[in-house]
Amino acid sequence: MEDRHDVVANLGELHAGLEGASYLSVLDGHGGINCCDFAKAQLPRRLVAALAAELLHQQHLVDTDFLELATRKVLTDGTTVLCALLRGTTLDVANCGDTRAVLGRKPAAPHARFSGNSGRSMRERELEAHRLSVDHKPDLPKEAERVRASGGFVRSINGCWRVTGPPGTSTMLAISRAFGDDL
């Protein structure tokens, strides 16, 4: 299995002044476990040092460091990442790829159709889903433009939009951003 997750329930154990803050991440690896393991080990330490304003910047630095390691060790795997930093009632999220954050919230007016509270789905508990992140998919115009500017190609293959690398590379992804993938 190439996927990983991480929960640091009390960031105060890593850095004074962050008592009660929590860090959560989900990593969806592809092609191997190296990038997932690297990002899982690096992100909490770096994010604690930088805090929420720097989530995206720190993700970029972890990706850059992994790409250097991958070049030295000839690694070809990657991972999508979703990080969340919870401090009191403030939740900051950052993602790379299609790993998504969704928040379930009670609606202002309950849904007449769903009156029970015993089920497991959001609808059965009368919650509305609110997306907190945006998937990085190759069919989005800005993502396709960014991929092309980096030397990659965006193609629909059997109805699924894919990112492919320059000729001579084996890159083919259904996402437009990921750690470890240089497009």
Question: What Rg do the Cα atoms give?
Answer: 19 Å
Q: What is the CA-CA span between the terminal residues?
A: 24 Å
Strand-pairing-aware structural class: alpha+beta
CATH architecture assignment of the largest domain: 4-Layer Sandwich
Question: What's the rounded overall pLDDT mean?
Answer: 84
What fraction of residues sit in β-strands?
25-35%
Indicate the percent of residues in helices.
Answer: 10-25%
Contiguous runs where pLDDT drops below 50 for at least 5 residues: none
What is the approximate shape?
Answer: globular
CATH hierarchy class name of the largest domain: Alpha Beta
The number of helical elements comes to 3
CATH topology of the largest domain: Phosphatase 2c, domain 1
Spatial arrangement of strands, main beta sheet: 1-2-3-4
Tally of DSSP β-strands:
9
> Largest sheet, if any?
4 strands, antiparallel
What string gives the helices and strands in order? EEHHEEEEHEEE
Give the CATH superfamily of the largest domain: PPM-type phosphatase domain
Count up the domains. Answer: 2
Can you walk through the features of this model?
- With 183 residues, the chain is α+β, with helices and mostly antiparallel strands.
- It has 2 domains: 3-100 and 135-173, Phosphatase 2c, domain 1 (4-Layer Sandwich), CATH 3.60.40; 106-132, no CATH class.
- 25% of the residues lie in helices and 28% in strands.
- The protein has 3 helices and 9 strands; from the N terminus they run E-E-H-H-E-E-E-E-H-E-E-E.
- It has helices at residues 34-50, 55-73, 141-149; strands spanning 3-8, 22-30, 78-87, 90-96, 102-105, 128-131, 153-157, 160-164, 172-173.
- Strands 1-2-3-4 form a 4-stranded antiparallel beta sheet, covered by helices on one side. A 3-stranded antiparallel beta sheet has the order 7-8-9.
- A hairpin with a 7-residue loop joins strand 8 (160-164) and strand 9.
- Helix 1 (34-50) packs antiparallel against helix 2.
- The longest helix is centred in the middle third of the chain and has 19 residues, at 55-73.
- It is globular, with a radius of gyration of 19 Å.
- The mean pLDDT is 84.
- Pfam families: PP2C.
- Residues 1-183 form the PPM-type phosphatase domain.
